[in-house]
Amino acid sequence: MKDLDIQDKLPSLKIGEVEIFWLDGGKIRLDGGPMFGPVPKVLWSKKIEVGDDNCIAIDNSAMLLLTPTAKIIIDSGIGNKMTEKQQEHFHVQQPWRLLEDIKRLGLTIDDINFVIPTHADFDHAGGLTCNDNNGNPIPTFPKAQYIFQKKEWKVVKNPDRRSATSYWPENFAGLKEGDNLKIINGDLQLTPEVKIFLTGGHTIGHQGIEINSQGESAVHLGDLLPSQNHLNPLWVIAYDDYPMEVIAVKERLLPGYARRNTWILFYHDTEICAGRAQFAKDNQDVTLGATINKTKP
Ligand SMILES: [Zn+2]
């Protein structure tokens, strides 16, 4: 049964017939420098609080989409399998509460039909699997199909040295192609409202998700647009494998979103869940109008 009082506390947004809920995928702190790549600290530190350790707060907001025909999870947070050393290294501030949040909505892990990781970094893929009673990782959502781009899965299976620091094999345990793993190559119209598309840029097989329903639209650009502070196409992060591609994709897509007032959904932002794209008053820069703010815990 749905507990409406509790459900109301999870931030949400309706795009036509699709309801989006933001789930708590864990909070970490990371060095602010790499999160803004080539941008000097004197500029980025005006936008976000920086600690004495140079770290900034990073949310990992998994999303649940309820469409008329499917229940879909986009990205999965840091998961609950990190060792103490890893938790210390990534300054975990708040544990992964994704399953509790799903329960708060009156759902169970069996209800989820699809899981769409934007890419395979641990902060997005950590919750794809959970340890069973014997401590062995198994898929968190037993009845779901997990959808990866072909190029991304190739790196998961055979990571280069840099990817290996963030693509942890335990996060993909039990995913089998043709069974619970669907490999796509480019676009996939998953439901009438939800389309997956290859973006590349942050990682070679990074994917984005567009939602269109009843004239309303939203887009999830994953780590190509991790927070509201990354709207400037040149504000890219040092973890991008192909930063010039990130810049090109943002330059290509953002004006269209501003024209249509598309909602931009954010995974790593600590203040807002989403913002409505629009053009700035006096130039063609893309900014945000209305926002959905995070509810304070
Ligand atoms: Zn990330």
How does this model look, in words?
By secondary structure, the protein is an alpha+beta fold. It has a single domain, classed as Ribonuclease Z/Hydroxyacylglutathione hydrolase-like (Metallo-beta-lactamase, Chain A), CATH 3.60.15. Helix content is 20%, strand content 30%. The strands form three sheets. Strands 1-2-3-4-5-8-9 form a seven-stranded mixed beta sheet. The protein has a seven-stranded mixed beta sheet with strand order 10-11-12-13-14-15-16. Strand 1 and strand 2 form a beta hairpin. The longest helix is centred in the C-terminal third of the chain and has 18 residues. It is globular. The mean pLDDT is 95. The structure holds zinc ion. Zinc ion (ZN) binds next to helix 6.
Largest sheet: 7 strands, mixed
Helical amount: 10-25%
Helix-strand pattern: HEEHHEEHHEHEEEHHEEEEEHEEE
Which structural class best describes the helix and strand composition? alpha+beta
Total helix count?
9
**Cα gyration radius (Å):** 18 Å
- CATH homologous superfamily placement: Ribonuclease Z/Hydroxyacylglutathione hydrolase-like
| Spans of at least 5 consecutive residues with low confidence | none
What is the overall shape? Answer: globular
Side by side, the strands of the main sheet go 1-2-3-4-5-8-9
Q: What is the arithmetic mean of pLDDT?
A: 95
Percent range for β-strand residues? 25-35%
Distinct small molecules bound, one entry per kind? zinc ion
Q: Termini, distance in Å?
A: 23 Å
